[in-house]
């Protein structure tokens, strides 16, 4: 697995979240992909719940912008330090950060994500 393929799929993952593009986002994942987002919550089968995830973003946010600050790649996995900034539909600004571990399969699709961040910190900014 080349580092370029891994970087491309990660860039597409974040770009499609920011665009709130459900089909583009799901296209990055293997059919049997699982997401732990955030770690500590029950894992989600991406292809079964992706519209709900993007739908939640669309319901809350007017704008989202992701910045990948660091990408560390080893074999077919990458750890990504990221920051997300957004504006809610009610005009409130939010900024939150985290680290997501991506496992990419041989077809260049995301097999597993493990996201380390605090939804509670983001929600507090929306109040």
UniProtKB/TrEMBL annotation:
Concerning InterPro entries, the annotation shows: NTF2-like_dom_sf, SnoaL-like
Pinpoint the SnoaL-like domain residues. Answer: 11-110
Listed name of the protein: Nuclear transport factor 2 family protein
Q: Which organism is it from?
A: Anabaena azotica FACHB-119
């Amino acid at each position: 697995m080349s580092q370029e393929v891994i970087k491309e799929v990660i860039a597409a993952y974040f770009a499609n979240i920011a665009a709130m593009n459900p089909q583009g986002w799901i296209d990055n994942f293997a059919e049997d992909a699982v997401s732990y987002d955030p770690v500590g919550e029950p894992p989600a089968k991406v292809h079964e719940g992706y519209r709900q995830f993007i739908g939640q973003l669309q319901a809350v946010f007017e704008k989202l912008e992701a910045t990948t600050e660091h990408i560390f790649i080893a074999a077919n996995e990458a750890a990504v330090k990221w920051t997300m900034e957004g504006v809610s539909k009610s005009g409130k600004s939010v900024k939150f950060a985290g680290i997501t571990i991506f496992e990419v399969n041989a077809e260049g699709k995301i097999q597993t994500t493990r996201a380390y961040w605090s939804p509670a910190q983001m929600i507090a900014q929306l109040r």
